[in-house]
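Checklist before submission:
- one chain only
- standard amino acids only
- sequence pasted in full

Submission:
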Amino acid sequence: MSKHTRLTPLTRHDALDGKAIIGDSLSILPVKGMGKFLLERSNLVPDGAIKPVGAALGLDMPMQVCRMARQSGGEGIVICVSPNKWLFLCDETQIKQHMGKVENAIAGNKLGTIAITQVTDQYAFLEVGQANARQLLEKGCSLDLHPDVFKTDHSASTLLAQADIVLWRSGGGYHLVFDVSLCNYLWHWFEGAAAEFI
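Returned file contents:
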C-alpha cells in the first residue's frame, strides 16, 4: 500500500516584516510589494540586442554602469549593475507582464546568450530617508554620497558595512537592494548606526 503525503504550498517569509526605524531626522523602512528580475547577457551579445528592451518597457535602457532609468509612468526602474547585467524593479503584480515584454524584445537575438531570471524573493529592498540618511549611510559606505556627486537616479554596486548592496538616490532619500541572507546582519548594523539620530 502506497503512502501519500499531502504537500502544502510554501509561504513567503520576509525577514524584514515588522521592521522599521523612524525618528525626527531618519527613517529606515522596508519597501514591500516590489517584483525584481535580472537580465544578463554573455559577452557576445551586442548593445543593439539589449536596447530594444528599453523600448518594450517604455524607458531608455541604461547602458552605462551605475546609471538607471525609470518608466514614463514612474512605476518601474532598471539599473545597470554591471556591463552585462541589469536589475529591474516594478510592482510585484506586474512582474510577469514585464518579463514577457523583455522576452519578446530579445526573441530575435542570435548572438550569444541572454538570460532573464526572476529574483523577487532573493533580494530585500530598503528605503533610507530624511535629513540624516546620507550621514547614516556614510558610516558604512566609502562612496561619496554628497548630492553634487551621487545625484538623483545615480546608482552603485557597493559595500555597506562590508555587505554587497545596490544603492541609488531617489528624490530626497536612498534605496538599497541586497541578498535576503544579509537581512539580519544589515538590520543589526542599521540599529546601531542609527542610534545617534533617533
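Reviewer check: The helical segments are 47-57, 95-105, 133-138, 183-193.
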